[in-house]
Structures are given as structure tokens and as C-alpha cells.
Design goal:
eight-stranded parallel beta barrel, globular, 17% strand, alpha/beta, single chain
Length: 406
Amino acid sequence: MNVNADRFSKVSHFKGEDLATNSENPAFVTVKGNRIVGPDGQPLLLKGIGIGNWLLPEGYMWGFRRANSPRLINEVICQLLGEEKARAFWRTFYERFITHEDVRFLKQAGFNHVRASFNWRLFVTEDEPRRLAGVGFECLERLVRWCKAEGLYVVLDMHGAPGGQTGDNIDDSWGYPFLYESPESQALTIALWASLAERYGDEPTVIGYDLLNEPIAAYFDRETLNPLLEPLYKRIVTAIRAHDPHHIIFLGGARWNTDFSVFGPPFDDKLAYTFHRYWDPVTPALIEPYLEFSERYNVPLWMGESGENTYEWIATFRELLEAHDIGWCFWTYKRLDTERSVVSIEKTPEWDDLVAFAEQPRTTFKEIREERPPRDVVERALRDYLGHIQFDACRVNPGYLAALGL
């Protein structure tokens, strides 16, 4: 590698006995021609759901518009509670948002995998020199353990990369995809993927690694940035393969995972290519470019994210994908007060007071003081929210499951 990823030091990690497997064990999901195949060598149609909002919160899932990234959501919580109580809030949030109960339900509902979206910030210390350590490792370890117990596969998805791969709120960036221009951010991205590959390289419960979610948003200079994407992918894959020869690596196209023109011929024997589509009219033309790419290079496709639409639209798109043997993973599993997720979190009246505060400019300390809701309202709203994110307190949306054929 051209960049010295080793300068990001690692802490030791625990790899539980129930996660460890013999490296010679052939029981991995893999690729065969243009199909993803199971451990038995037979085609495996992936049917999954994205676990959004857990390890990378998005404002719209909280009812926030202004505070629409993890940093901005945390800013609101800190302004409401103070840093100490905000840290306690997030600890409980990570513990309760996804539990073994959620995983068991998803398996029983008929899904065969989840896409675990994460923010790099939860895996890296803020001090210098930065170290690979953080609550993110613990959360993924629990998720993989539960999925292993229930027979559910996992795709690891770097939804927010150092520097920002997208340049918008969804990657918790500073409003530009600095990843492609920053050697340090690239080195840290490579080091984190290498660490995850070392940790899960022998774990068949993990299908593979979705390297960068929706890289290079459409409103940035594609002529400059697009040519930088595949070379970065190649460097990440090289680092992963130093630890992990088994797992599939998913490559997403530019412009929100829609543009495959950035790709040349496959450069690894276990690649799959992932696209996202939202809101477009569902016709065969919607997926034709991806089918042509798959046929040209004899590589598998995976529709890694879609949804946030009517049940009719979701069902129609899902049926189109299945008619062409394309596996899918819709979005998202759980969010606040909605029909457009698998399960919905109850919203209490006090939550509206928090939303009103989050929507204010809050550009001065005077505005923060004057707009902050009463302390008892704040604490009750957040306490109730942490109770309502637990699976047994959520409402299942049968229409969403039916649209997915489950």
C-alpha cells in the first residue's frame, strides 16, 4: 500500500469462541460467476434489511431536519442534557436499539441477512495518535454473535468513512467528500477495514464488506472525483485480502451508488457490485445498466439499499429484482413514528418539544437558553425514547413485510 495504514495503532480485541471458526472451513457465502452462492454452492437470493440509525443516526429518523447528522444530533442532546448525561444516553441507545430480540424477530420474519451500517467515529479514538478502539467494535461483536445464533447473515457497511465519502449528512462529513483528497483519511479507512477483516476473516456469519456507502454525491465534481474511487477501492481490497481471503467485497458505484461507469474489469475474484435506487419509476430500464454490467463481466449484483416509499412501490421493485435473480436489502429496520420501516418507534408528545428545539437556529448561547425545553420535559422525552426503541415496545408494520414478500 502507498499509504502507511500501520501508523494507526490497534488495541487488542476479544474474539469470542462462539465466533471463531477454522480458517479451512469452507462454509462461506461466496460468488460463482454472476451469482452469490451459499455454503452449499447453490444460488442464494439475498433478502435483507438495513440497520440504519443505530451506529450512524440520521436526523430524519428522529424527526429532525436541521440536526440531520450524528454530530448535529449529538450537539442537540448535549445542549439539552450536558456532555456527561449525553454520553450516558448514547451508551443506553447503543445497547437497546438492536438486541438479540430484534435479530430473532428479523430471522423469524423471513430475512436472511442484515446490512449493519456504521460510522467510522465509533471505531477510532479522538486523541492523537489515533487508535482503533471504540464502542463500534463491541456493538458489531454483539450483532454478529446474535446473528450467528439465529442463522442470519451480516454485511458490514461503512456508511460514514473518515473525511466523508459522500459529502452529505449521511456520512457525518463536513459537507464535502474530503476522503478522496486526504491521505490521512484514506490511510485510516484502509486501517479500519483491515482491522475488521482481521477480526471477522474466519467468520462465516459475515457475508462480506460493503466498502463505502453511496460515494461521491451527484452535486460534486464528478470529472475530478469519480476517477479516484476505484483506485481507493483497490487499495482497501488489498489490505482486506492480507487478512481475509474468504469474504465477498461489495463495491458501490458513484453518485449515490447508481453510476457503474467508474468501474473497469473486476480486480478480485470475490467482488459483487451494489447499486441503490430510490423513487424512480419501476420499469426494466431502472436496472438495465446494472444487468449489462453483470453480463459483461460475469459478476454478481446486490441491490444494497432502497425503500422510503409506498408499499406498492417497494413490492413492485422487489418483484423486478427477484425476476432477474438480484438479491436485495431494503431500508430501514427501525425508526421513529413511521409506516416506512419494518418496525416503528412510538413518539410521545414531549418529543415534539425536543424537535422544536432542534429546529431552532441555536446559533447563540442566548437562543439555546431561551429555547431549551424544561428539564423535566427533556428527561422524560429522552427516557421514554430509550424505552420505546426496545423491540417489545415497537410496532411492527405488517404492510412493509408484505411488500417484501415476507
